[in-house]
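Checked the freezer inventory, then went back to the computational side. Two predictions to log before the end of the day. The first one is the construct we discussed on Monday; recording sequence and tokens without edits.
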Amino acid sequence: MADVQELEVEEIDLDDEDFSCEVHDDDEPETAESEVDMCGMCEAIIDGQYLTALDNKFHPECFVCVNCKNKVAPGQDFFERNEKPLCVDCHYLLYGYKCKVCKEFIKGQRLCWGDDAFHFQCVKCTGCAKTLCETDDLKVVNKKDFIHVKCC
């Protein structure tokens, strides 16, 4: 009898870690009682336009990816690492999974087996030769073959 084991499906939901920033203009004069705004990146005083993101304020030119130093523009997707922005490309480069078949980064749901990850569309059922889908009931047979439960 074949060795049959359950698979694990993981989903990366960009909505859970997707952040945004907003541009503001600080035209109000400073008073003795008002709080001085400090940039969350360079820690210098903010005087003029600033971005709000990650529960902090930033100079527009300071709001850059902590890895590649490219500017993260208002409306652009990014991830948060240690209360600083990390661009989407760097997030996948540093923390992403590459498909064992096509070698591309996996954005969205992935099929995980051991230390390997796959795009569903890169793997076919060994029983019926159809491409796998996120909603399919799957098993692994002989520790290497993906198969639909109905094909077992």
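The second is the one RB wanted added to the comparison set:
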Amino acid sequence: MAGGKEPIEVRFRLFDGTDIGPSKYDPSTTVSALKEFILARWPQADKDIAPKTVNDLKLINAGRILENNRTLAESRVPVGEVPGSVITMHVVVRPPQADKNKKQLANSPKQNRCGCTIL
């Protein structure tokens, strides 16, 4: 494995299968900075779901949700990566929260519901 100072090439896969990138990043780049990059380059045409802030995005690499304060070097998975290859990170958009609906659900009386299981 390299010394870790070489740029890391990353591609971001959106929920609909489209990609942003690949682009090269310094290993000291934070996950929060990567999210800002994604937000700035988010496709505008024909997208029903679009993030408004960095907090609306989640980055997933090798099944792990990446924390904003971690660096790209800390978020890498050393096992299974081929040196010099492109790392694909998945981007998940948090759906907008409906505050009014939450309050209404919290104040409404609970209804008895049947849970059915089909075998």
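For RB: The longest strand covers residues 19-25. The CA atoms of residues 24 and 70 lie 17 Å apart. Let me know if you want it refolded.
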